[in-house]
Every structure is written in structure tokens, then in C-alpha cells.
Amino acid sequence: MFKNYIRIAWRNLVKRKVFTAINILGLAIGFGSSILIYLFLTYHNSFDNFHENGDRIYRVVTEERRDYIDYEASVPPAFAKVFREDYNYAEKVAKVVSWENYQLNVGEGTNTKSFKEDVVFVEPDLFDIMTFPLADAIGTRSLEDPNTAYISENMAQKMYGAENPIGKTFLYDNKETIEVIGILKNAPKTSVIPEEIFISFGTLKKFNDFTADETWGGISSNLQCFALFHPNQNISQIEDVLTELPKKHRPESKNKHVYKLQPLSEVHFNPKYGGINPAVLWIFGVIGLFLIAVACINFINISTAQAFYRSKEIGIRKVLGSFKQHLFWQFLSETFVISLFAIGLGVLLAVLFLPSFNNLFELNLSMNSLLNYQFFTFLVVVLAAVSFLSGSYPGILMSRIVPVLALKGKLKHNDTGGSTTRKVLVVAQFAISITLIAATLIISNQIDYAVNSDLGFDKESIVMVGIPKNLEKVQLNSLKEQISNIPGVTKVSACLTSPGGSVNNWGTSIKYHNRPEFEEFSIQAKLADTNYLNTFDLSLVAGRNFFENNSDSIAEMVVNEMLAKKLGVSTPEELLGKQITANGGYIKATIVGVVKDFHDNDFTEEISPIFIADQTRWFDEIAIKTNGQNTKHTLEQIGKRWSSAFQGYIYEPRFLDERVAEQYETEQRYLSLSKVFSALAILIGCLGLYGLILFFVGQRTKEIGIRKVLGSNVASILTLFTVDFFSLILIAGLVATPVAWYFMEQWLQGYTYRTQIHWWFFALAIVAIMIITLITISYQTLKVAVANPVKSLRTE
Predict the structure, then answer these.
(1) Which of 437-441, 472-476, 481-485, 780-784 has the highest mean pLDDT?
(2) How many Å from the N-terminal Cα to the C-terminal Cα in the chain?
């Protein structure tokens, strides 16, 4: 019986090639998009699921409670040691410090290879907490020893090629020689610790005093603490116990710490602590369902529209003994065959577009990861669901046709049913497209506002170049002078980091003038030379710039207007001459100037209180303002001066405007994806519209001929077909507008500085759908409208 259903289904599909092709292509696009989304969701849900004791691994995080709550995926450097020695909740405790983009040199002389990699300094207990198995090692050595490292098999291949890396060395940051004492098996990239170079924690002291020391004075976002707890621990109770630590070790601080235990399985999914927002994954999943739903709507609309033309076939089948259930399964079989072809084409489309998808999200997803039973289960479930949902309604509708009316040719279009349902489904289809277009416009408008607004500082034609730490002032001034003399360079400043798009944020508590206690809020330090204000065009609203500092202590500083607001000072002038104590008392300086506020964070966060002061030993970058002419040559000349001053270091210039734009990289990706999905939804919808108009034009060919004989022109005939669709689009717009407005309003709530949602976003989306619909239906309609009415009247 089933074999017979398939054979007949195949004959019917071949007979109606155009409609079959439209249905297959629409479903294939939906399937292909869903497969890519499935890959994306599977990738994110696989994070940190390879650790043997994953259910007992926790990361310790901090809620910093000042005038607001700041969430840090870190703890003070001293926490790990105290928690390990004073409490017995965990089997192992380890802290790790991750550093990005540091230079490594392998080899000697002319054979030296230089490149930059992310590294992590680790306490050896980490390898008892997490599953990073060794492939090879020196048996008598461990990461307890300074200047030792484990590297992954992939990194060993990159650094040493086919040579055995055990016992070999590399130069870290052009300063310290590190010996490779172990090779780790390649771990999945879906890890909270993605680095592939693990350097002993004892080495860190030579590079960073703060994170290496046992201090409670502050938090570095580079430092994380992991613990493997004993089985069956009461986590809430442990968190209650941890409230004792700030009282004991930070009793006078206004920055109140609350330490929380975050399960390893939640690390990747908590946006407060740098993880991905789970809502994003839900949105992806819903969009995948939308695309398949739009394709299913096409199928249902076209199938029900064709019911009138298949009525005689159904009447004959019923006369010959077919029951309703037989007809139902016959139409379901046709749907299954179409879905089967569509899912095969969908897999092919997913393979073709996977590289572009990877580029968009900077991933390395592979179709090979789909060769498992979960993916085949997903395909089977989707195939069954689409076949049933798409085929059930047309099957039920056509199985109800009265055979007597069908065979006598007295069956009217209303007798086949489905007209109202078609309209509802078309409205749903249009509403989805309008929602996606409106969302795209709103996201694009917000990103454009954030990137192109006046940020309060100059970011155009400014090149940021990293420099080695702890430079002598004489060497730094010499380099600045050489760069200043390059044609095309207009301004030069050395600093810790730029005003916005910062790569080195440094927050600290402050005490203002004669106030006895530290303030509730923290302040951002922008350490820089005296050219900083001029280079970035920061405007003074009161006082003057600070003078050059030639000592180890800071005497003068410039602050921003936000500090005055936070301190409750009525005018910027009142700050002048007042003293600020910061960094635990190591900084005591007088305010000599106040600059206009500038955006140091992205637009999701409020402008921070800021001070700018001169302290050479903390400088990490040089900011170089160019005239924007012959930029390539100017960068080459800067590179020559820079490389001459810092031999053996890699020269990597970065434009500041690009770095600022990178703050919205995630939003840019979502915008690109929104554009793609909107285009796909429209494309699938257009296929369905084309199929419907093909049917309707064929159905009303005689009517068009009669209208032309009676004097109707081409425009009136085109209007005849478009007015119904335009009315449905307007209804869809009324449905989509409040839905899109609500969700976009929720999204914009994440921005402190945001645009407004304007009515014309939705009007433009509705007009766009109208234009696309008009283009879609015009060809077939005009083809019949301009035809000889004699041919139209002869059409059966």
C-alpha cells in the first residue's frame, strides 16, 4: 500500500513540475537554514561538557556592590589560597590568569619564528580539576617550577613542527625563557579555558605583581578561580559562609564583595560574567522554526489552491472505493516525497553556505560534526514534523470533496475550502517578514548611532601601537620625537589606553579631598602623557592640563565631568585644587583640570568617572594622529622607527575607529544575520506568492479576457490581483508592528544611550513587502494582461 502511495505521489509531482519545484526550493531553504542553526546551537551547548567531573566544578565569581552592582568573573588574588587552606569544601582549588596576544619567539638567530598567542598562567592543581590529559611529559618536572609550560599537540606542531618539543624552550614577551615540559592532548575549543599554552603560575610574578601576589586589594578580570568540590556539597550554604571573607579581609572597603559559586555548565551561558545570553540561542531557534514555518505555509497555500483542479481525480478515487483515510495518506505521501527531496537539497545548501556562516561568527564549524545519531534524529524529526504539518491540512481538505459535484463539474472553488485559511497563513507569512525587516532596521539604526555618534573624543585617523611595559622615559620620548617627525603624523601621545575602545581598563576606589571614607563608586584611570588631551581632542571645561611628571609618584591629574556628578559637586570649577587618593593610597594627586565627558565604554554602559595622569611605567600604547593622506606609507615609516626601537617585537598598528567599532562586533553579527534571515524569509515568501499567483492567474484567465474585451486596461487588471495581497499585507503590518516593537524595545533596554523606535521603521518594512510582492506577481499578471483576449477566452 505504501509503495503504491509513493508511486502515485511521484506521478502527481512530476505532472506539476513548477509547483513541485517551488515547494522543494522553499522547504530546502528552510531546512538548510535550520541545519546551520542546529550546528550553531549544538556548538554552544557543547561548552565544557568534556570534563570528567564537570558536575562538581565551579568558578568563583564576585558581585561588586558599590553605587551599582558590577559582576566580575574573578576574585581577589588572595582568595584561592585562603579558600584552599581555611575551608574543606573542595578537593582542589586553582587560579588561572589569562593574557591575550602576547609575543612568542621560537628558535634562534635567523631561524627565529615570532608570533602572538593567548597564554594562561596556571596553578598545577587545575589539571586535577579539569580534564586536560597529558600526551607526553618530563616525569620529574611539573608546573610547580617557574618558567615551565605545557602546550597542546596543535601548538607543538605550530611552534616546533615535526621536532619533539619536550625540553625545548621559547622566549615569552622577549623577556623570559620558558621550557616545554609537557604536551597536552588537543582539547575541544568549546572550553572556558581555550588557550593552548599553559605557563606555570610561579612565572607570573616577573610580569604582573598584582595577580601574582596574595592580596585582597582589588580584582583583575584576567584572573579566574576554579574549584573541584567534594560530592554532595550544599552550594548555597557555602556561599553564605563566604560572606565572612570580605568582612575579615576587606572591612573598610566601600566596594562590598559578595562571592558566588558558578557551576561550570553555566559559565558559557551567563552574560553577567561574560558568557553568551541564552536568549540569543532561543532567538536563533525561533528564527529557524519561522523559516520552516514560512516554507510550510507556502506548501499548504499552494496545495489547497490546487484542490479545485484535483477534484475530478479525487471524485474518481472515491467512486472506485477510496476512503477518506486513503486519500489523506496519499496526499501525505506526496508531502513526504517533496520533504525528502527538500531535506537533501537543504543539506547541500548548508554545506555550501557553512564557510560564510563560519566567517560571520568567527567559528570553525564542520559538517563532519553532524555525523552522529543526534543529527540524524534531528533530521528525521524535522522531516516527519514538516511532512505531517504541511500535508495534513491539504490532505483533510481534499479528502472531504463531494465526488458527485466533482465528477459533474459543478464543484465551486468555495466547495474545496481553504480560502480563509490561505489568507490567514499568508498574513502570518507577511507578518514574519515585516517583523524581521523592522528588527533589522532598528538594530542597524542603533549600531549606526553608537558607532557614528560624537563620542567626546577624536577617533579618526588615529593609529594605536603597543609598546613594551616599563619603558624608560628617555627611550619613550626619543621614539615619540622620531615618530612626530614623520611626514603625515600630526600628533603623538603615549598612554595606558585610548579614551574609548579600551583594551586596558583599570578601575580603582577613590577618597575625595577631606572626606574620611572612600566613595561608593570606582574611577577609571587613563594614565597618559601631557599630549593625551590634544591628540584625542578632549575638551577642557575648567582648569588646565597636567604638567609632565618626572617622578614615581603622581602629583597632578585631570578628571571628567562625571566625577563631579558622582561626588555631588555642583560645578566642575569646585573640583580644582582638591586632592584625590586612589589605588589604595599609592596615588595622591591634585585636580588641576576637568574635561568634558567622553564615552569610555560602549553605549550599553554609563560614562565612567575618569582621571587622567602622567605615569610612564604604566604606558602600554602610543597613539599616533595622522593627516589621513598616504596612510600606507605613513604606517610603514612608523613601523621602521618602532621596529628600530624595539628589535625582536612584532609591529601591529590598529586604527582606533576600528577598535571602537569592535565593541559592537556581536551586534554587527546579529545585524548581518538578521539581514540574511529577513532575505531568506522574503525569498521563501516570494516563492509561495509566485506559486499562488501562477494558480490564480490560470484560474481567472477567461475573466481577464472578458475584462479586456469590455475595456479594462493593463493597470486595472494588475490592480485586480494586487489589491487583495496589499490588504493582507496591511493586516500583517498591524499584527507585526506591536510584536516587533515590544521585542525591539526590550533589546534597546540594554543600552544606556539609545535611539528611539520610530513609526517609519514599520511603515518602511510594510512598503518594502508591498514592493517585493508587486515585483513577484507582476510578471505572470502582466503576461496574461497583455495577451490577446481571444486566447484567454478560449482557455479551458
Answers:
(1) 481-485
(2) 35
Q: Which residues contact 329 (CB under 8 A, 6 or more apart)?
A: 5, 395
- SS3 letters for 481-520? HHHHCCCCEEEEEEECCCCCCCCCCCEEEEEECCCCCCCC
Considering only CA atoms, give the Rg of the chain.
Answer: 34
Same domain membership, residue 436 and residue 379: no
Taking a C-beta distance cutoff of 8 angstroms, is the pair 219, 82 a contact?
no
Residue 94 belongs to what H/E stretch?
strand 90-106
What pLDDT score was predicted for residue 483?
94
| Overall average pLDDT of the 454-469 stretch | 91
What's the mean pLDDT in 221-235? Answer: 93
Q: Is residue 208 part of a domain?
A: yes
Q: CA-CA distance, 509 to 550, in Å (whole number)?
A: 25
Q: Looking at the domain assignment, is residue 430 inside a domain?
A: yes
| 16 and 75 share one domain | no
Question: What is the total residue count of the chain?
Answer: 796
Question: Residues 30, 99: one domain?
Answer: no
Looking only at Cα atoms, what is the longest distance across the chain? 105
- For residue 506 the three cell numbers come to 583599570
Q: In angstroms, rounded to a whole number, what is the distance separating the alpha carbons of residues 442 and 635?
A: 37
Bridge partners of residue 591, in order along the sequence:
557
302-348 pLDDT, tens digit each: 776 665 555 556 655 555 555 556 666 667 777 788 888 888 899 99
Cα dihedral 452→455→460→462 (10° resolution) = -140
Q: Could you tell me if 299 and 336 are in contact, meaning their C-beta atoms sit under 8 angstroms apart?
A: no
For residue 739, the enclosing domain spans 418-454+664-796
Does residue 252 share a domain with residue 133?
yes
Number of domains observed in the structure of the chain: 4
Of 616, 648, 680, the domain-final residue: 648
Of the candidates 619, 660, 662, 656, the one whose C-alpha atom is nearest the C-alpha of residue 464 is: 656
Bin 648: left if φ > 0, else alpha if -120 < ψ < 50, else beta. Answer: left
Backbone angles phi, psi at 506, to 5 degrees: -135, 105
The pLDDT value given to residue 407: 46
Which DSSP symbol is given to 109?
G
If asked whether residues 718 and 784 sit together in one domain, one would say yes
Cell of 50: 568534556
Domain boundary, last residue among 620, 648, 676: 648
- In the beta sheet, which residues pair with residue 69? 65
State the residue for C-alpha cell 479551458: 796
Q: Which three cell numbers stand for residue 382?
A: 524535522
